[in-house]
Structures are given as structure tokens and as C-alpha cells.
Amino acid sequence: MPAVVHLMKVARLTIFQT
């Protein structure tokens, strides 16, 4: 599901940006 991939990407970006 593209939604899951999108969520994972967003989560990673958020974690790295913190």
C-alpha cells in the first residue's frame, strides 16, 4: 500500500528532523 510507504517516509523524516 502506498499509504503505508508514505507514512513510513513521513515518520522517518520527522524522526531525522527532530
Concise account of the structure shown:
89% of the residues lie in helices and 0% in strands.
Would you give an account of this structure?
The protein is an all-alpha fold and 18 residues long. The chain has one helix at 2-17. The longest helix is centred in the middle third of the chain and has 16 residues, at 2-17. The chain is rod-shaped and about 25 Å long. The model has no long low-confidence stretch (mean pLDDT 91).
Give a quick set of tags describing it.
18 residues; mainly alpha
Layout of SSEs?
Elements: H1 2-17
| Tertiary shape | rod-shaped
Helix content: over 70%
Q: Structural class from helices and strands?
A: mainly alpha
Order of helices and strands: H
Low-confidence parts lasting 5 or more residues at pLDDT below 50? none
